[in-house]
Amino acid sequence: MISLRGLECLVTITEQGSLTKAAAVLHMSQPALSHQIAAIEHEIGTPVIERLPRGIRPTAAGLAAVEEARAALAAAGQVVTAARRAAAGKGGRIRIACAETMTGWLLVPVLRDWQHRFPGVELELKEYTSADRMLDTLLAGEADITVAPPPTKTDEHVEVLGEEEIVVVASPGHRFAAMAAVPLAELSDEPFVHYDPDNGNAVWVDEFAARRGVALPQPTLRTGSPRTAAHLAASGMGVAIVPVSALTPRPNAVVRSFDPPELRRVIVIVAAPHDVLVHRFVADLKRRGLPVERAAQLRPPAAEGLAEGLMAATVLPLLGLLILPMIYSKA
After folding, report:
1. Residue 329 burial (C-beta neighbours within 10 Å; 0-12, 13-18, 19+)
2. In the prediction, which pLDDT does 52 show?
3. Where in the chain are all domains bearing CATH 3.40.190.290?
4. CATH class of 4-87
5. Which CATH number does the domain 94-300 belong to among 3.40.50.300, 3.20.20.380, 3.30.300.30, 3.40.190.290?
6. What is the rounded (10 degree) CA torsion for 225, 229, 230, 233?
7. Using one digit for the tens of pLDDT, what is the confidence trace for 99-120?
């Protein structure tokens, strides 16, 4: 195989018309330059230059080789330029495999920021419902990073973004509304919204119940999405176990922590830890952190917000009417 250095020697010696001049331009000795040309002639099987008393002359094979050599050297230069642009955030591509609940919850602000700061970088996003399936995609070379809960097992490079809480969701007015936190055993006699077997949350929920020694009821129905599970629970179809990432925006529902609370890690699996562009993207994710980690941080739904507003608009003025006369009477 002819090296790029050999091609550079061939082009330079043809342009300079002299071994001596070409060696000076390339900052190498004449014997080293002659060795490069000899290697090319050995590879091709025919001379590429003819040595004359004064200088050299390229052969027909040499001229044909020089034309292609120039194109190859230009392409090699483009390779270097493209790589440097990617390292500087001016080009390249990042392929992201993400849990479907985490796109809007976690990724959108970072993606928007990168679109503004690094418009030359192509961001490719695919959403999944299984961390194991995402890992398979990464191992197959079809993704650069995954953003999700931990898969069943991995030996790849992992960066931890934080922990999100797993909560129970029920319809407005459900008895869980009177509880500060809900023991998992309280779900045993409730209609239950579960997940499709191919959804990673199906296995996780079953393992969660087994760890706490609770037998969950037979599901009233199954769904492939935690967001859908939360909305089904809010509509009274049953109670659901969902990550807080599935509750943005929060549905008009009762959302309670478990007793004791249940937390699950959110991680990034990186195919090439030393990739400068990917490293920068992951660093931005870690710097921003998880937007909401606990149920208590969720904004109340519109109905609750309206109730709080009515409370402020009616009860507080009434309290004022009761308290002010007392103040003036003491005065």
Report:
1. exposed
2. 87
3. 94-300
4. mainly alpha
5. 3.40.190.290
6. 170
7. 999 999 999 999 999 999 999 9
